[in-house]
TrEMBL record:
Name of the protein in its database record: Adenylate cyclase, class 3
GO biological process: cAMP biosynthetic process; intracellular signal transduction
Pfam family, one: Guanylate_cyc
CDD domains named in the record: CHD (cd07302)
Keywords on record: Membrane, Transmembrane, Transmembrane helix
Length: 539
């Protein structure tokens, strides 16, 4: 790692450490809020000090020049003359004379303007100059101020004007020069005076002061604010850079997480195809741990098998057999899921499912749900056989089903590397044995299951059987129907025997279909009776 990259890494680590500690950022904000008024106060004090220093320096220079002017043009001329001194406007031409106030003001304007450092201008001007003096050039502000003063004749009137540009401001202030008694007497009798009818209170001219204030000069007076904002800007830029970098890191991590989540979602969807929905949900929700453990629970076990599957498979091509078997499993699994069954596994052409784990509604409700599922499956098989025959399947699947209720061990069986969530116990074996003695399209239940569903099912008691591992005889019951069916008109009729395949869903028939069904049934009945009478005649 180069020294520069190491420095960048340490700086990034420092900012990341600060970002991970919000109290440091909060402290920095509070400190910034405290330092802002302090920086403003320091700059205002600095600005005031700079302004006072400039004003003092300018005033000192002007006073020094005024003192020098007074020493040379007033005191010097009086001391160097032995006669009586007089005050005249052309004092330079008269030995021992001193300037009158108007002349003094005019000349002081030049002294102040020359020593004001360009920041202060002083003008003593009038539009009525003496004959031997150059006329004064009044600008618009001075002309307007003079006219206003003469109209108002107010000795304390003041005219101001603020102007300037982006980098400089200035203020101009003008006051009237009012004629006193001595001034009236002098001006009305002086041979060079342009006006001889002056009166006390008349405005002779104006006295104007202009103060310039360059803005750029005061910029450096805000050095503390500049330092504050420079520090705040540097901190803000660094923090923004950190946020930008973190945002990029977050975007990258989010993209990686989305990719990982998408991959995991795809994997989980694939895994879900190998597990029942209940087991899949309990594992991925964290309700069950993936460890070898079992529980003993009372379950209702369902076992189904296809009669003569091997013989049927010999008459079908492998592709057709695969399609047919997958269609059968899909239809049966959908019914099982709708009734809340946990599909344990597919064993060749057999289905093992159970009720009572991972969720149970009670032994009685689980047994009834399992019976309803089996009946729904057999009804669906009648429909499927009709569909398969129409597709050219000569011997469609016929399914036998067995149901038993009892205690089993349920949970994860296997090794630490590979497990199977299943059930083990004699009760599961009994369900498989009951299936084996059922008629094709029939359902056989155990006594334990019958005890839970006897109030709603019609059964036929079969011959007792024995099972290895279970003492005593087992009494099976063949399900013939539900009591509810007898109390209402049947909506579906499903009958199948040698030479007979009948599936009639009355609920789906409209008026035309009913008339057609009646005609077909009457035709079939007539054909059967004719065949029966024909046999009787032959006999």
């Amino acid at each position: 790692m180069s020294p520069s990259s190491g420095k960048r890494h340490s700086t990034h680590a420092l900012w990341r450490s600060i970002a991970e500690r919000p109290w440091i950022l909060a402290l920095a904000v509070v400190l910034a809020l405290v330092l802002l008024p302090l920086a403003v106060w320091l700059d205002l004090r600095n600005l005031s000090d700079a302004g006072l220093t400039t004003q003092a320096r300018t005033l000192n220079a002007m006073v020094s020049e005024i003192r020098a002017y007074y020493g040379s043009n007033v005191v010097g001329r009086v001391q160097g003359y032995t006669g009586d001194s007089v005050a005249v406007h052309n004092y330079e031409d008269v030995p021992g004379a001193i300037p009158i106030p108007a002349t003094l003001s005019l000349e002081l304007g030049g002294v102040i303007a020359g020593r004001g450092g360009g920041d202060v201008d002083y003008r003593f001007v009038s539009d009525l100059s003496f004959a031997n003096r150059a006329p004064h050039k009044l600008d618009a502000f001075e002309t307007a101020a003079l006219a206003s003063f003469r109209q108002s004749r107010a000795p304390d009137a003041v005219a101001t004007d603020l102007s300037g540009s982006l980098f400089e401001r200035q203020i101009r202030m003008a006051v009237p020069v009012v004629m006193g008694q001595a001034c009236v007497s002098c001006h009305n009798t002086h041979p060079e005076s342009p006006k001889r009818d002056w009166q006390v209170g008349d405005v002779r001219g104006i006295q104007a002061i202009t103060v310039h204030q360059p803005i750029a000069r005061n910029l450096f007076s805000f050095k503390y604010l500049f330092m504050y904002f420079a520090g705040a800007g540097a901190f803000g830029a660094a923090f923004a850079g950190l946020q930008w970098r973190q945002a990029n890191d977050f975007r990258r991590m989010n993209a990686e997480l989305e990719e990982a989540n998408g991959f995991l979602a795809s994997i989980s969807m694939k895994i879900s195809k190998y597990l029942s929905p209940q087991i899949y949900k309990s594992i991925f929700s964290g309700e069950k741990d993936v460890v070898i453990s079992t529980e003993r629970k009372k379950l209702t076990i369902f076992f189904s098998d296809i009669k003569d599957f091997t013989e049927t498979a010999e008459h079908l091509q492998p592709e057709e057999l695969t399609s047919l078997l997958n269609e059968y499993f899909t239809e049966m699994s959908a019914i099982a899921q709708a009734h809340g069954a946990t599909v344990d596994k597919f064993i060749g052409d057999a289905i093992l499912a159970f009720f009572g784990d991972p969720e149970t509604r009670g032994a009685r409700e689980d047994a009834n749900a399992c019976l309803d599922m089996a009946i729904a499956m057999q009804k669906r098989m009648v429909e499927l056989k009709g569909r398969w025959r129409r597709r050219g399947i000569e011997k469609p699947f016929e399914v036998r089903m067995g149901i038993n209720t009892g205690y089993c061990n349920v949970g994860n069986f296997g090794s630490a590397d590979r497990m199977d969530y299943t059930i083990i116990g004699a009760e599961a074996n009994l369900a498989a044995r009951l299936q084996g003695i059922a008629q094709p399209g029939g359902i056989v239940i155990s006594y334990e299951t019958w005890a839970h569903v006897q109030d709603r099912v019609r059964v036929r008691r079969l011959e007792p059987i024995t099972l290895k591992g279970i003492p005593g005889e087992i009494v099976p019951y063949a399900v013939e129907g539900l009591h509810e069916v007898e109390t209402a008109a049947p909506q579906t009729i499903n009958e199948e025997d040698e030479g007979l395949v009948l599936h009639l869903d009355i609920a789906k028939l409209d008026a035309d279909a009913r008339r057609k069904a009646e005609a077909v049934l009457e035709k079939a009945l007539g054909a059967v009776r004719m065949q029966e009478h024909g046999k009787g005649d032959k006999a």
